[in-house]
Amino acid sequence: MDCKVICMSNIPPQNPYQQPVTFAVPQMQSQMPPQKDQTLAIVALITGILSPTLGLLCCMFIPLSLVALITGLLGMQKVSKGTGEGYGMALTGVILGGGTLLLYGAVFAFFFFSAQSDFNDINFDF
């Protein structure tokens, strides 16, 4: 009778002195530094531009100017710490927001005090 060895697997026999075959997933190494955030500077610029234009039409100059001032100052602070970008945009937002607040504040103060002085000149004698 003929004895044959039946191989149960399709894997060829390995050399015991050979390294096993392994596959490693390549790791992505970031060559670029992390991007600096400029969100506050962009918000300051947009609200600074909208405060004199849309603010007068909708009487929203006070909140828009305050948002432009606060986000602009916070954006400038981030840039000085080195964690942000957009110093020019933040500065422009601060200038536009502060200028709008001062300009419209002066105009409304003028109308308020001039209307008050006209009210005092009225004689109520009947």
Brief digest:
By secondary structure, the chain is an all-alpha fold. The chain has helices at 39-58, 61-81, 87-120. It is rod-shaped.
What labels would you give this structure?
3 helices; single chain; rod-shaped; mainly alpha; 126 residues
Lay out the secondary structure:
Elements: H1 39-58, H2 61-81, H3 87-120
Description:
The chain has 126 residues and is mostly helical. The protein has a domain at 39-119. The protein has three helices and no strands. Helix 1 (39-58) packs antiparallel against helix 2. The chain is rod-shaped, with a radius of gyration of 36 Å.
Main sheet attributes: strand count, strand direction, barrel closure: none
> Percent range for helical residues?
55-70%
Beta-strand proportion: under 5%
Q: Note the run of SSEs as H and E.
A: HHH
Classification by helices and strands? mainly alpha
Summarize model confidence as the mean pLDDT. 82
> Total number of helical segments?
3
Shape label: rod-shaped
Distance between the termini: 142 Å
Poorly predicted residue ranges: none
> How many strands in all?
0
